[in-house]
Recover the amino acids of this structure.
């Protein structure tokens, strides 16, 4: 059976919810674990599929400064304050990703706002040696702290299901 990891970064919890919904979809055909990014090492050598997701910050992957911004906005402690997908990917060895991969992000549902953390993460995973099994996907939030737009968790589940049935 396919062994898959879903690795996510999340400040306010929206990307975490999407990560779990993707995992639910994947679970129909794969053995899946979900890991918050700061606890997602080392990658197991027998992994078949790596799914990576994070919030879009400043048109791309978060940085320490944007996570700090999120922390100052949040009413509760944010989840991924110590590191994000950018730092996690930087910590993986060159050529160290031998799996198929897919990436997603969460972004504000605004027609004219460009930039996608998922596209940036996909580019890095390709350089690290992985092979893409799907186009980067975005899931929409209504505002900086969410909530997710109606229907996005169902869409995330369907996307996960499609990843499991290539
Ligand atoms: C500092 C900061 C910068 C952001 N920049 C963008 C952006 O460039 N484009 C966008 O669509 N959303 C942007 N957002 C909104 C985030 O994408 C949103 O907070 C995220 O999807 C929520 O996911 P989370 O609850 O998992 O953190 C930004 C949010 C923060 C806190």
């Amino acid at each position: 059976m396919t062994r898959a990891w879903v690795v996510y970064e999340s400040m306010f919890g929206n990307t975490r919810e999407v990560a779990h919904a993707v995992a639910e979809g994947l679970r129909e055909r794969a053995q899946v674990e979900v890991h918050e990014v700061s606890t997602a090492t080392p990658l197991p050598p027998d992994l078949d599929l790596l799914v990576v997701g994070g919030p879009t910050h400043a048109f791309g992957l978060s940085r320490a400064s944007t996570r700090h911004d999120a922390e100052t906005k949040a009413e509760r402690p944010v989840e991924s304050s110590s590191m994000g997908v950018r730092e996690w990917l930087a910590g993986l060895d060159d050529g160290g990703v031998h799996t198929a991969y897919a990436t997603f992000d969460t972004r504000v549902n605004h027609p004219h706002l460009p930039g996608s953390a998922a596209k940036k993460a996909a580019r890095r995973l390709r350089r690290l040696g992985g092979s893409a099994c799907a186009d980067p996907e975005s899931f929409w939030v209504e505002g900086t702290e969410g909530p997710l737009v109606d229907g996005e968790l169902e869409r995330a589940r369907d996307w996960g299901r499609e990843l499991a049935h290539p």
